[in-house]
Write the C-alpha cells for this entry.
Amino acid sequence: MNNVHLLDLVEIVIESLRSIQACPRSISERIVHKFATMNKKPSDIRHNPYHELEAAYVAQICLTWEALNWNYKNFERKRAARKDFDCPAIIAQQFQQFQVLLQRYIENEPYEQGRRPEVYARMRLLAPKLLLVPEYRDFEDNQRDEGFGSRISADSFLVIMEDGIQTFMNFLKADKEKPYQIIKAFFGRKRRGSVDPSLVQLMKKVNVKKKTKLNDLRRAHKCIRKRKLKVVKEMEILMGLVDLKVVSRVLRISDLSEEQLHWCEEKMSKVRILEGELQRDSSPLFFPVH
C-alpha cells in the first residue's frame, strides 16, 4: 500500500472550507438564505459545502485506518517470519510524527470553533501530513550505506505503531455529535436519494451491540496471566473496536449512500465473536466515496 497523499481529497477539503467561509454564518443571514432558496429547483441550489467537507473527512479517516491496519499486520507477519527482524529508525520517526500530529489535534480541537470536519480542514491546511499514514518499508543495502542504516528493534517499533493506533482511537472518540445533531438525526426525514433512516438506525444498533460484546471480551481478557498473550489479544480487540468506531462515524454522514451503508454492513461483518473469541478479518475494505 502506497503512502496516502490523497491530493484529490485535500483539494475537496480546501475548496469546501472556502465555500463554508463564504456562506452566511449569522442566524438572520441563514433565515434569509433559507427563504431565498425555498422556491428554487434543486439544481439551482448550490451543494451544501459542509456535506462535501464531511464526505472528504470521513473518506480520509476510513483510508487512514485501512493504512494503519495494513502496516501493522504487514509488520507483524514479517516480524514473525524472522527472529532478527528490526526496523529502519527513519520509518519509526515517521510513525511517531503521525502520532504527534494526531495528539496535537486532539489537544487543540476543544479551543477551535466549528464541527469536526470544519476544524479538521483548517488544521489540515496548517499540518498537511495530518492523518496521512507512512508506509512501513525496509531499505536496500546500498541505502543503508548512504546514512539510512540506523535501526530500532522490532518490539520497539511495534510499540510505536500500537501507540499510534490507540491515539487514532482517541481521535475518533473525540469526534462526538452535538446535541442538536442527535435531535436532527432522530427526527430527520428521508431525503431524496438517501437511504432509509430505519436501516441506518438498525445498523447503529448492531454496531452498539458489537461494541458492547468487544468491551466485555476485553474485560474478560484482563484476567489472563500470560502478559504476551494478553497484549496480543488486547491489540486485536482494540483494532476491532476501531473498526466499529469508524463504521459508527460513517453512519452519521449527512448524505449516506446505499453503497456506503453496504460498506458499513460488510465492515461490521468482519468483526465477530464466536465462543468467547474474537475473529477479525483484517483484509482491506476500501470506503466508497459516493
